[in-house]
Write a structure and sequence with these properties.
Length: 264
C-alpha cells in the first residue's frame, strides 16, 4: 500500500474508532449495556489499535504467513459483513420512508410493546404510543390494539400500561382500546392479535397499521406478511438520535436472527 493511502487509512480507522468508542462508552455509562453498544465498542477498539499500530501489526504478520492469511481473511469477512449491513440500512430507510406516506382507511391499529419501567412506558414505547394516538383519534372506526404481556416480576401487562398511557396522555377512552396481554415478542404480538381481530370480524387481509419504532419497521412488516397479514402498514415512531444508530446495529442482528429462526 502506498504511503499516502496508508496514512489516510490509518487516520480513518483511528478517527472512526475513536468516535465509535466515545459514542458507545457514553451509552454504557448511562446503563445501556447491550449488543448494540458492546459489539461496536469492540469494533472501535480494533479500529483504533490498527490505526495506531499498523506498522507493528504488519511487521508481525509478515513473519507469520498463516497469521497473515488469517488476518486478510478476517478483513475480507468484515468487508462482506459491512456490505450486507449497508444493504440492510438502505432497505430500512426505504421502509421508514414508506411509513410516512398518507394512511388509507384502516381496519385496525396494532401498537407493539417495547418495555415498561415502574408501571410506565419506556421512552421508546412512549414514542410508539405518541405516534399511534393521532391515528387512533383520526380513524375511530379502526379498532386499536395494544400488545404486550406481563414481564417477569410484574403484576400488570404491558398492554394495560400502554392503554392507560393512551388514556392519560391522549384522552383515548380505555374501553376503546383492546389489549393483547400474553405476548413476549414481536412474533407473538402479531400472532396473538389475530384472535382479537377475528373476534371483531376483521380479516388480516384488510389494511392494518402496525405502529413500532422506526428501526423495527422492516422486521415487523416481514413477520406480519409471513403470518398472513396481506396489507400491513408500518407506522414508524422516531428513535432519539443519541441511540438511533446503536438501535439500527442491534436490529440488523435481530433481523438476521429472525430469518434464521424462520420468523419470515
Amino acid at each position: 500500500m502506498q504511503k499516502p493511502l496508508l496514512t489516510l487509512t490509518r487516520i480513518i480507522l483511528t478517527v472512526a474508532g475513536a468516535v465509535i468508542i466515545v459514542d458507545c462508552a457514553a451509552l454504557i455509562a448511562v446503563g445501556k449495556i447491550n449488543f448494540g453498544t458492546t459489539v461496536p465498542l469492540m469494533i472501535g477498539l480494533i479500529f483504533v489499535a490498527h490505526g495506531l499500530s499498523w506498522p507493528r501489526i504488519q511487521s508481525v504478520i509478515k513473519r507469520r504467513p498463516l497469521l497473515k492469511r488469517g488476518w486478510y481473511a478476517l478483513w475480507g469477512l468484515f468487508s462482506v459483513w459491512l456490505v450486507s449491513f449497508a444493504v440492510f440500512i438502505i432497505s430500512l430507510q426505504q421502509q421508514i420512508e414508506l411509513s410516512r406516506q398518507p394512511l388509507p382507511d384502516l381496519a385496525a391499529i396494532i401498537v407493539l410493546g417495547s418495555g415498561t419501567v415502574d408501571g410506565k412506558p419506556t421512552p421508546t414505547l412512549a414514542s410508539r404510543l405518541d405516534s399511534a394516538a393521532p391515528i387512533i383519534i383520526a380513524q375511530p372506526a379502526a379498532i386499536a390494539i395494544t400488545s404486550g404481556g406481563v414481564g417477569f416480576g410484574r403484576d400488570r401487562s404491558e398492554a394495560d400500561i400502554m392503554a392507560s398511557y393512551l388514556n392519560e396522555a391522549h384522552q383515548i377512552a380505555l374501553d376503546s382500546v383492546w389489549q393483547e396481554d400474553k405476548s413476549t415478542s414481536t412474533e407473538e404480538n402479531l400472532a396473538n392479535s389475530k384472535a382479537l381481530l377475528a373476534a371483531q370480524g376483521i380479516s388480516i387481509k384488510a389494511p392494518i397499521a402496525i405502529v413500532t419504532s422506526d428501526f423495527h419497521t422492516i422486521r415487523s412488516a416481514a413477520i406480519a406478511r409471513h403470518q398472513g397479514y396481506t396489507q400491513p402498514i408500518t407506522v414508524a415512531s422516531p428513535t432519539p438520535l443519541s441511540i438511533r444508530y446503536n438501535a439500527w446495529f442491534r436490529e440488523y442482528f435481530a433481523f438476521v436472527s429472525g430469518w434464521l429462526l424462520g420468523e419470515y
